[in-house]
Amino acid sequence: MFDAAPSPGQNPRPLPPAQSPADGVPGPRAPQRAQEEQAKAVRPGKERDPFFDNAKYLAIALVAIGHSWSPLKTDNRALEDLYNVVYTFHMPAFIVISGYFSRSFDMRPDRVKRLIAGVAVPYVLFQLAYSLFKRYAGHMDGPINLFSPYYLTWFLLALFVWRMTTPLWKLVRWPLPIALGLAMIGSVTPGVDGSLDFGRILQFLPCFVLGLLLKPEHFALMRTRRMRIVSLPVFAAALAIGWWTAPHMNDNWFYRQNAAQELGAPWWIGPLMTLAMFGCAVLLTACFLAWVPGRRTWFTALGAGTLYGYLLHGFVIKSVLFLGGFDIAQRYGDYGSAVVTVLAVATVTLLCTKPVQRVFRFAMEPKMAWAFVQDATELARERQLKEREPVKAGV
Q1: Cα 120 from chain centroid?
Q2: Which sequence spans correspond to the domains of the chain?
Q3: Burial 21-38 (b: 16+ CB within 10 A, else e)
Q4: H helices within 70-204, ranges in order?
Q5: Could you give the dihedral angle defined by the CA atoms of residues 301, 306, 308 and 314, in that order, rounded to the nearest 10 degrees?
Q6: Residue 37 has pLDDT above 90, yes or no
Q7: pLDDT for residue 380
Q8: Under a CB-based contact definition with an 8 Å cutoff, are residues 312 and 356 in contact?
Q9: pTM, rounded to two decimals
């Protein structure tokens, strides 16, 4: 602990200069916190941020609530007001987060494989499943068309297209203005919502591009007490505007699917509504994220299964609709709406759990190694990861 004193009559030798420890190796007296931080640096990406898992779960709960309100809001102005406010930001929030976690996508072979296996293949499977469900459970005849997304499946197709274009958005100088320009073009082009639901792909594109541009410090700005205070009058104003516009506004504006001409408006209204809806979506998304807890909660673990909840809850919503369950709830007015809301949240929560994920993993995360050629670079990377495993275990 202390250096020994020299003996009398002996000239003390100077001590050698202190040497810094090697990179990544903590010194003998390094504090425990520093060692933990270095251990985390050795294992990048292994720990999930509870904030984003919480945000994804709450967003997907709002999606399920919105779908359950859709058959009930007729002749219920208060419910239509809430519906319009929720639909202004619930999918934009989900898409912004999807864009944020797509920043690293760079067309590397292993990432393209994961995109195909985790997004494209589930799209095909669920598009077929929903089409057959509509035909036999809903007694709706019609051709099975993989290029015309039904109900919820549009998001998978859109996510595939958006993520494939991620390298392009990294190259251009003004990605968000360009994305807004494309969205405005989509809002004045009748028929663009036909094949591949291209209307939604274009009109929601700015939300995805915004997510690509965000950085951790931007989310830190939203997660402050000041932002939570500001969000209260913003939400109050949104509800007031929603109440005033509910009898006059076409719900299809919130779906970002049709051109202005198809909604009975002049063409120039399309670009104006695109900018207005994007601005409102960004503002309300920021206010929503301000209230998302950053700590681990009982629903944090469910954030990893939100895509399961998203795709599976549609079967429940449609089943209740086909069986006339929403008609029964409507007879009880606000009490019926409240019960449906609670059941919608409970259902999507159940569908995000680990047991449900294990049952449906074959469709959501299929093992597709057999379908791809082995890439030498990828094999080398896998070998390096396996070689590091013993080192990681000892950190």
Answers
A1: 16
A2: 50-213+236-369
A3: eeeeebeeeeeeeeeeee
A4: 77-100, 109-115, 121-136, 154-164, 166-171, 175-186, 198-203
A5: 140
A6: no
A7: 74
A8: yes
A9: 0.83
